[in-house]
Amino acid sequence: MPKTETYTLNMGPQHPSTHGVLQVVLELDGERVVQAIPQMGYLHRGIEKLAESRTYAQFLPYTDRLDYVSSMGNNLGYCQTIEKLMDIAVPERAEYLRIIMTELNRIASHLIFMSSVAIDLGATTGMMFGFRDRERILDLFDMACGARLTYSYIRIGGVKEDVPGEFIDATRQFLADFPAMLTEHHTLLTGNEILYHRLKNSGVISGQRALEIGLTGPTLRASGIDYDIRKVEPYGFYDRFSFTVPLGTTGDNWDRYMVRMEEMQQSAAIVAQALDQLPEGPVMAKIPKVLKPPAGDVYHRIENPRGELGYYVVSDGSTKPYRIHVRRPSFINLQALNEICQGTLIADVVAVLATLDPLMGEVDC
Amino acid sequence: MSKQIISSELLLELQTQFSPAVAMIGENNQQALLVDLERLLDVLTRLKNSPEYQFNLLSNLTAVDYLEYFEVVYHLYSLPLKQSVTVKTRCTNDQAHVPSVTALWPSADFQEREVYDLLGIGFTGHPNLRRILMPDDFPEHPLRKAYQFTPNGEKG
């Protein structure tokens, strides 16, 4: 009788399911996962260090390059932190535009998530359809700020400029078309039996444990914990909109998928309400050309598509930040990978990675 | 913006209980508890476990190099009570060691490793204190103020 031994298998660093560069060192007992240790750092650019030699405004484009599929949220989190530090009031119209942009970006980001789940599990068409629909949102962003990925649209004190007239009509048209798009995704993917059986009851994490590990965002809510910063600590005008927070029950791969699918619908509803309420007026507060926040430190968090995005900014009273730390949800969520994967089959690791939805640009910062 | 900061009565109570190891610093949204290194774990354990605080989410952990000393910062949030608090502690440059909070909040695991990697602060009791972002053989801690980008002094 031969003795069975565990062996090590390196997944990545270039595995397509890792949305960037991640290596997962798997310790396997046959096909069963004993350990799944993520190794990161391949994309580390030292953005926090770079911040210390830039002015406050110059750092903004760097935030675009963290979670680069939801850059609007990164812009927003950073700008609001500086506004909190300097006590800057943002014009109403800008607040609405910010919410429209970040919620559209949430839909775009979740479409990428859906596409990655599809392609990671071998469904190419599912991916194509997700990317096709995301193009519509990128066109809207292109209209508003001339960029499709790194926007720098939300600025300290407001937004870069007002949206052109056709933006409103195009956004309404998108919202009108969106339910049909969603139905198509549900028919193609959600209703697919193979996808269902790949995701259901695998990669389970309990709510209690998810919280201990520090999971946030849809990944936490899939385990049934109702923690959405837009609800518990409303920033901007989130308290003026009615929307529900989708929750899962078991915290398996399927719940993480479904929570995000439902969140897209809620985001579309928020955008529709924001368009209806959108007031006229300026979109930028009067702020000095070179910002000099008073000495002090502040932490501010927002709900980004991957969870709690926080900025901790320390000012020494000069024109450059003394220290900026970014609390990246992907980085902290990745801590759950090892625990979730233990005991599953090697094929499930791909599904768990897809539904945890880490983005390596953000993990490595 | 963050409004639900922990109530001042609870802060005062904490201050009296752990006096003189806990001081209140800063105002409004910059309010924080400055805790002596020796009592840090006691204070954090109380903040996490006692029913009037219930800070069950360690949402952020980071550190700052103030040249004379390092400051480690904890941002806690309580889901049941919807309150948040900032806790800070300080350690000197030549004794850059802080007790690990991974036993209280496993979410500190990667975050403490990141602080160790980039700032060179040790966390006593961390189960796996290794570099996380930089290569294993990297000799320095880049987020320290003394670290320069390139030998030529080009600072970007």
Description:
The complex is a heterodimer of chains A (365) and B (156). By secondary structure, chain A is an alpha+beta fold. Helices cover 48% and strands 13% of the residues of chain A. Chain A contains 15 helices and eight strands. Chain A has a three-stranded antiparallel β-sheet. Chain A has a three-stranded antiparallel β-sheet with strand order 6-7-8. A two-stranded antiparallel ribbon of chain A has the order 4-5. In chain A, a hairpin with a 2-residue loop joins strand 4 and strand 5. In chain A, helix 3 runs antiparallel to helix 4 and helix 11 runs parallel beside helix 14. The longest helix of chain A is centred in the N-terminal third of the chain and has 29 residues. In chain B, 21% of the residues lie in helices and 28% in strands. In chain B, strands 1-2-5-4-3 form a five-stranded mixed β-sheet, with helices on one face. In chain B, strands 6-7 form a two-stranded parallel ribbon. With 156 residues, chain B is α/β, with parallel strands linked by helices. The chains are: A alpha+beta (365), B alpha/beta (156). At the A-B interface, helix 1, helix 8, strand 6, strand 7 and strand 8 of A face strand 3 and helix 3 of B.
